[in-house]
Design a protein that fits this description.
This protein has twelve helices and 15 strands. The protein is an alpha/beta fold. It has a domain at 2-208 and 397-419: Vaccinia Virus protein VP39 (Rossmann fold, 3-Layer(aba) Sandwich). The strands form four sheets. It has a seven-stranded mixed sheet with strand order 3-2-1-4-5-7-6, sandwiched between helices. Strands 13-12-14-15 form a four-stranded antiparallel sheet, with no helix packed on it. Strand 10 (243-246) and strand 11 (249-252) form a beta hairpin.
Length: 423
């Protein structure tokens, strides 16, 4: 079997299933477990740090681990960096069969830091019986020195190992998410998958097949080929639209064609203007925002008079937040704190006249949209309230990236058509 520690909602499991492999996920968070159950993924709800590793010896072909990143992430206090020497010590001790976790944990500034050492406890137990055949691990970039320590130990056990930082956008994910990766194998040379995308498209040449341009948020969300597609802002309550409360107060939410109305056909690039929606989503659903517009395209941007707006995604509420237009991939998505609210914001594309109407209020991203930007299916069965869903999405491995990493180890060709991004 394939063992998946800190399995989350299925970032590794979903692509494994598409590749014809079933894994066993160990996960503590109840909502991530419920999402996995709704997605039909085999799960053991448990504390990875307490579960006995020896029960998997003699039956494990592949080993996956994505320890919680909150202690190390730039979105948090990053106390994992302060605790890093203690984590390195725990890894070294566990590789020798010595369990010093309880002692080291008392000295940690963040109790989650030591979870990054847990994979070594399992790997030591599995190595005693010549397992696993391959290993794949993922974390935030600051964990790369720890992965290098793991690599040195795995090489001493007979593995070929590669470690480095990969950008998810280079593999067709509409997000410039950078992650530290460890790949190891007993039977093949460990190496990173060849990138399939680049910031600027690269034509085929004698040196390779070339690369497609990075996938934009607009493309992934099915908002059409225009450079400035825009979400529809609906008024009125009920299932047709209206204000939606979230931690910072009630704001309107981005609508989608299936639940809250229709998308209007995009106007020509030079004609994109913001037009306030005042009749409610019910009217839009019946008549279309431009008379008979299809539901497959993005709505026109809204304008008032000569003020032109286009939409971008702001990664959080902090002053240094990443802001990207929808014609580009998103920045790294992370959630779990009020300051990490991810919102669509309107930005001016022309000089604002003196008495122009102000831009529309920010619109909070939906869980379905965030999931798509992580390369999950549009209909992935997220469980829990919005905060719990966002937390799962932000902590997950992008499934499309996981498929690229795993396909060589299980001998199954990667098929990009299995990971269509647009709804």
């Amino acid at each position: 079997m394939v063992l998946d520690l800190f399995a989350g909602p299925g970032g590794w499991s979903h692509p494994l299933r598409l590749l014809g492999i079933r894994d066993v996920g160990l996960e503590w968070d109840q909502w991530a477990c419920r999402t996995r159950t709704a997605a039909g993924l085999l799960t053991v709800r448990t504390d990875v740090a307490m579960y006995p590793a020896r029960v998997f010896a003699g039956r494990t072909r592949g080993f996956i681990a994505s320890p919680p990143c909150q202690a190390w992430s730039m979105a948090g206090k990053r106390l994992g960096l302060v605790d890093q020497p203690l984590v390195h010590q725990a890894v070294a001790d566990l590789a020798d069969g010595l369990d010093t976790r309880e002692k080291l944990l008392t000295a940690c500034r963040d109790e989650r830091s030591l979870l990054a050492a847990e994979p070594m406890r399992y790997l030591h137990a599995l190595n005693a019986v010549g397992e696993p055949e391959w290993v794949a691990m993922e974390e935030v970039p600051d964990v790369l020195p720890l992965w290098r320590q793991y690599a040195a130990i795995l090489r001493s056990w007979g593995f070929s190992v590669w470690t480095g930082v990969l950008n998810a956008a280079d593999y067709g994910i509409p997000q410039t998410r950078r992650r530290a990766i460890l790949l190891a194998s007993r039977v093949r040379t460990a190496e990173p998958p060849a990138p399939t995308h680049a910031r600027v498209a690269e034509p085929e040449s004698l040196f390779g097949p070339g690369r497609a341009r990075w996938v934009s948020m607009a493309e992934a969300l099915g908002w059409g080929a225009t450079d400035r597609p825009v979400p529809t802002v609906c008024a009125g309550g009920g299932p047709g639209g209206g204000p939606e409360p979230f931690p910072s107060g009630a704001r309107k939410t981005l609508t989608d064609a299936r639940e809250r109305g229709t998308w209007a056909a995009p106007p020509a690039a030079g004609d994109i203007v913001l037009k306030p929606q005042t009749r409610g989503a019910g009217w839009t659903a019946r008549h279309g925002s431009r008379g008979n517009s299809p539901a497959s395209g993005p709505a026109p941007t809204c304008t008032s008079k000569a003020t032109h707006w286009t939409w971008a995604l702001r990664s959080n509420n902090q002053t240094n937040a990443t802001i990207r237009p929808v014609s580009e991939p998103a920045g790294t998505l992370f959630f779990g704190h009020r300051a990490n609210e991810c919102t669509w914001i309107a930005r001016p594309t022309a000089a604002v006249q003196e008495q122009a109407t102000p831009p529309p209020a920010p619109i909070r991203i939906t869980a379905a949209e965030a999931g798509i930007l992580q390369s999950f299916p549009a209909d992935y069965p997220w469980q829990g309230n919005k905060g719990q869903q966002f937390s799962q999405i932000g902590n997950a491995v992008p499934p499309r990236l996981a498929a690229h990493l795993l396909a060589p180890h299980i001998g199954v060709p990667f098929n990009p058509d299995d990971f269509t991004l647009a709804a």
